[in-house]
């Protein structure tokens, strides 16, 4: 009989999950934002989970979905970067290569019917070239000037389509991300008001400390959501 530790463990259902990640290209590089909440079902169980991580010299990763699967992905990437550094050939993996690697990982696990329950955003800058892409839990992937995961796909990207332009300054990019995260906070029950923003430029990645969004809850629709609704009394 095999030892219990030899048993295969699979994530059959996401337990502790993080909500949307939103990212965009700006004048000098990539900006990314996510909140710090971790939900156990519909209960906000953890309030200080950081889901934005620098990868190697040129890349920045953001993840929504199952937190333990995200930790497993980070272990894969640690091995990838270590193996790359061991060559010591003066080159290092850029964001495009890391994104391609993640698409293969996610699609491979999907084909084994043992998916990693995450949506990932990978951005970076190498040799002056900005790169931003996403990959879903089944390996669907694309590149764009701005991307989002989860409900951010439905609530944040319309804002980004209206207001994004390629010459955004750092301050303008942060304001735009804060606007997106505020809308998500109002509309996504899994979102919290403590968010984290990170940037990556040619000089490297910076993950800023979490901070609280300024919010306004006095809208009449918030106080009485049935006002003006179809079929309301």
TrEMBL record:
Gene3D superfamilies: Glutamine Phosphoribosylpyrophosphate, subunit 1, domain 1. It comes from the Eukaryota. One of its GO terms (molecular function) is hydrolase activity. It is found in: Cytoplasm; Nucleus. InterPro entries: Ntn_hydrolases_N, Proteasome_alpha, Proteasome_beta4, Proteasome_bsu_CS, Proteasome_sua/b, Proteasome_suB-type. Keywords: Cytoplasm, Hydrolase, Nucleus, Proteasome. Coiled coil: none annotated. It holds the Pfam family Proteasome. GO terms for cellular component: proteasome complex. Its main location: cytoplasm. PANTHER family: PROTEASOME SUBUNIT ALPHA/BETA (PTHR11599). Belongs to the peptidase T1B family. Non-catalytic component of the proteasome. Component of the 20S core complex of the 26S proteasome. The 26S proteasome is composed of a core protease (CP), known as the 20S proteasome, capped at one or both ends by the 19S regulatory particle (RP/PA700). The 20S proteasome core is composed of 28 subunits that are arranged in four stacked rings, resulting in a barrel-shaped structure. The two end rings are each formed by seven alpha subunits, and the two central rings are each formed by seven beta subunits. The catalytic chamber with the active sites is on the inside of the barrel. This is Proteasome subunit beta. The gene is PBG1_2.
């Amino acid at each position: 009989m095999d030892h219990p530790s030899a048993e295969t463990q699979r994530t059959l259902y996401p337990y502790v999950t993080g909500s949307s990640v939103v990212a965009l290209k700006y004048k000098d590089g990539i900006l990314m934002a996510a909140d710090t909440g971790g939900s156990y079902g519909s209960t906000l169980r953890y309030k200080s989970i950081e889901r934005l991580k620098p990868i190697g010299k040129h890349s920045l990763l953001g993840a929504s979905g199952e937190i333990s699967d995200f930790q497993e992905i980070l272990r894969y990437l640690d091995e990838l970067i270590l193996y790359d550094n061991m060559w010591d050939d003066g080159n290092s993996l850029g964001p495009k290569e890391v994104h391609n690697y993640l698409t293969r990982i996610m699609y491979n696990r999907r084909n084994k019917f043992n998916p990693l329950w995450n949506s990932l955003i990978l951005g970076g800058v190498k040799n002056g070239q900005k790169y931003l892409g996403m990959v879903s839990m089944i390996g669907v992937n694309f590149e764009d000037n701005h991307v989002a995961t989860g409900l951010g796909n439905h609530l944040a990207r319309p804002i980004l389509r209206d207001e994004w332009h390629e010459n955004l300054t750092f301050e303008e990019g942060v304001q735009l991300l804060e606007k997106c995260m505020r809308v998500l906070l109002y509309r996504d029950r899994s979102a919290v008001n403590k968010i984290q923003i990170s940037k990556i430029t040619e000089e490297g990645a910076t993950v800023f400390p979490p901070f609280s969004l300024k919010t306004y809850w006095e809208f009449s629709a918030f106080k009485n959501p049935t006002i003006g609704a179809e079929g309301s009394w």
